[in-house]
Amino acid sequence: RMETDCNPMELPNNTGFEEDSDYGDFEGTDVKDMRLEAEAVVNDVLFAVSNMFVSKTLPCAEDVAYINVETRERNRYCLELTEAGLRVVAYDFDQTDDRLQTPYHETVYSLLDSLSPAYRDVFGNALLQRLEALKKESQS
Predict the structure, then answer these.
(1) How many whole angstroms separate alpha carbon 54 and alpha carbon 38?
(2) How far apart are CA 5 and CA 70, in angstroms?
(3) Which Pfam families does UniProt cross-reference here (predicted)?
(4) Is 127 left (phi over 0), alpha (psi -120 to 50) or beta?
(5) What percent of the chain has pLDDT over 70?
(6) Exposure letters 98-114 (e unless 16+ CB within 10 A, then b)
(7) Which of the residues 6, 23, 86, 121 has the least number of beta carbons within 10 Å of its own beta carbon?
(8) What is the mean pLDDT of residues 80-108?
(9) Are residues 82 and 66 in contact, defined by beta-carbon separation less than 8 angstroms?
């Protein structure tokens, strides 16, 4: 269990973590949990790839999480998410290759844009459809 400098009884009851036993050790801390961040990344772009999920095999921590992604071209990658950004750490699910020196990307969008032309097309089309919808809304 993580050591804390405060008495847990002093913490407000609305931290939101109590219900989920997986996050019990993070109760009351202000640290950004990378697993939550990774889930948000997946939810953001899942529509534009074949498959994407947070790794259940590789260890997630406060400062790192791993995301498996399969592009529409059927290429598989394991991505590392840290404060520095996202980068490819292997060319298969649930793997890391220390010899792989790939650049960090600030966003999942730029990373997928560099890996998958089909992602770029799907994401671009979704953006266009959204803009068209907004244009129609503003005209009515």
Answers:
(1) 6
(2) 42
(3) GSKIP_dom
(4) alpha
(5) 77
(6) eeeebeebeebbebbee
(7) 6
(8) 97
(9) no
What is the residue-averaged pLDDT of the chain? 83
Residue closest to 36 by CA, chosen among 12, 57, 6, 16: 16
Residue labelled with tokens 């799907």: 122
Residue with tokens 């949990």: 33
Give the pLDDT band (50/70/90) at residue 2: very low
pLDDT above 90 (res 18): no
> Distance between CA 103 and CA 79 in Å, rounded?
11
